[in-house]
Amino acid sequence: MSPELLIAILSGLGGMFGWGIADFLAKKTITTLGDVTTLFWCQFLGIFPLLALFLSAPSIPHIGYLELIWLAVLGIWSGLSYIPTYVAFGKGKVSLLSPLFACYAVVVTILSAILLHEAIPLGRQIAFGVVFFGVLLISGDSKSILMLVGIARVKSEKVKGFKEILLAICLYSTWLIALDQLVNGKDWAPLLLIIRVFSAISLFGYAKATKRRLRVVDSALWKYLIFIGCFDVAAFACVSFGFSRTPFVSIVAMLSGAFSLPTIVLARIFLKERTTTVQTVGSLIVVVGVMLLAVL
């Protein structure tokens, strides 16, 4: 195994565990504080580790006015794309919604093929079909599919937060395409810092516009908010490092896209979430499909 391939795999796994743990922790704070309050503080607290990375850099890169405007747009876009995700987590089961959100990796690949003319090999197309089948099972629209294999009597149910997750997938997928075009070949730390600052500002404005309270009354929740912000930033840092140091972009992206796997495991163990057999199988199929995209 080449050093670059090892870096790509480790970077992807770092993103997977970072985002997976952050999603799991977010369920507890969302239930108590609400989606917007949790989201704002996690984005705000995540600024500080990025600021430490920025200040530790040997030199400060030059950022022009036009580039700063685009970074501001990406920051606002990022904040808005998080809102439906956290709203969905507040409504439904994170062990089901997290693997659904992981489908953004498939959408990103499709958009890359359409907009950036990236070739999609046959193996990757097969992986798309695997992911899509898993999504059908999780969404609760699985009765017709199950009838085809003779198991229509298996219990199925609709997933709360499904529509919000679909919106989040669309917003986040297009955001990643735009981010890739802006930061490709550049120092990622200061750019992510600027994006994070504008993301927090946009969420603060959204909270005020919708009259959401941002006060955290229960001091015990601060540790969760800090950990969520740190794990989220760590995931972005791992993925960005992998993109900047290796040519194996698809491996980094697709492995990090399997972040639902640790979320599912932690939610089952600590939150005692229970799902139908069909949804459990669908969750595993989605995770397997996303990981197949990294190797096919």
Structure description:
The protein is globular, with a radius of gyration of 19 Å. Helix 1 crosses helix 2 and helix 7 (122-139) packs antiparallel against helix 14 (277-295). The protein has one domain (3-295). Mean pLDDT is 80; it is low at 144-156. It starts with a helix and ends with a helix. It has 14 helices and no strands. The longest helix has 31 residues, at 3-33. The chain has 296 residues and is mainly α.
What's a quick, concise take on this entry?
This protein is mainly alpha-helical and 296 residues long.
Instruction: Find the count of extended strands (DSSP E, 2+ residues).
Output: 0
Q: Which structural class do the helices and strands define?
A: mainly alpha
Strand content: under 5%
Give the mean pLDDT: 80
Radius of gyration: 19 Å
Give the count of helical stretches: 14
Tertiary shape: globular
**Biggest pleated sheet:** none
Instruction: Give the termini distance in whole angstroms.
Output: 17 Å
Number of domains: 1
Order of helices and strands: HHHHHHHHHHHHHH
- pLDDT < 50 stretches: 144-156
Helical content stands at over 70%
